[in-house]
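#dry-run=false #mode=assembly
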Amino acid sequence: GENVEQHPSTLSVQEGDSAVIKCTYSDSASNYFPWYKQELGKRPQLIIDIRSNVGEKKDQRIAVTLNKTAKHFSLHITETQPEDSAVYFCAAPRGHAGKSTFGDGTTLTVKP
Amino acid sequence: NAGVTQTPKFQVLKTGQSMTLQCAQDMNHNSMYWYRQDPGMGLRLIYYSASEGTTDKGEVPNGYNVSRLNKREFSLRLESAAPSQTSVYFCASSLEGGTGANVLTFGAGSRLTVL
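#status=ok
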């Protein structure tokens, strides 16, 4: 089955700095890579995703990059703000979205 | 349009008791899922239903049963609760039309404590 490793497990940055979270996956057939954000006590919500035919995707302050050869994808958050503080999960589904293997999560803390 | 609604939000059980978590979605999604989330362990799939009338095991199905009652509703049952089932449970759904690359929409979660 798919194996997804996510690093780091915790990340603390100063407001305004950039944050990068990286995930590696094992199944070369994976073709869709979402990132979910989960605020404390809330449900996970999709913040950005990328498909395998694209190398990079941006949405305002967040971006995702994909390296299919190396089997890793990364979440980049620029100009971090305190409201970016949350747990971020990557996933690598094959077939049904809900059969994703999720990373263990990265707790991001943005210090004001 | 409520999205994914799950009940109850909180539940405390004694070891050996049974209960059912209910989930309903109003987005006309085809697929539904139950996950559990434990500290530091991310989201683990318990059971899923790819379409109405089908269910299948996920990563951690032991101790659970599910029913896809209709296209909207997918319930999770604990027949004899154990302390190891103390967790936060999330129901989710996805459209799953064609490409297989679809977004998961999660419910608000149900916090279950088994004493």
